[in-house]
Amino acid sequence: MHPYTIGLLEAVPIADPTRRKKHERPEIKGDIPSPINLPTGCRFHTRCPMAAEKCKVEIPEFEEKEAGHYVACHFPVRNKD
After folding, report:
1. CA-wise closest residue to 42 among 56, 21, 28
2. Given CB 3.0 to 4.6 Å as the disulfide criterion, which of 4, 5, 51, 61 pairs with 44?
């Protein structure tokens, strides 16, 4: 449900060349956060496409957003199912 995680999963290479041609891999923009000097707020806001000012200053709570599905994000992406 975290937008940055979704971007990472979509960027995984596809081994099948016929499927690979049909799949556009999105570019993940922004700066990779330093593991030594973590950014304030959400640790992923420097690369998250949904990041807002709130993400830069507030650490999101780890919450159950759907039954059995937990995420720490101010703007989680809901399943379309």
Report:
1. 56
2. 4
pTM confidence score: 0.67
d(CA 74, CA 81): 21
- pLDDT (average), residues 18-47: 81
What pLDDT, on a 0 to 100 scale, did the predictor assign at position 65?
84
Return the domain boundaries, the chain: 3-17+26-72
Task: Determine the distance from the C-alpha atom of residue 56 to the mean position of all C-alpha atoms in its chain, rounded to a whole number.
Answer: 14
Measured between alpha carbons, how far is 69 from 73 in angstroms, rounded to an integer? Answer: 12
Find out whether 26 and 6 touch, Cβ atoms under 8 Å: no
Contacts for 29 with CB less than 8 Å, ≥ 6 apart: 47, 49
User: Please, which residues bridge with residue 63 across strands?
Assistant: 71
DSSP state of 4: H
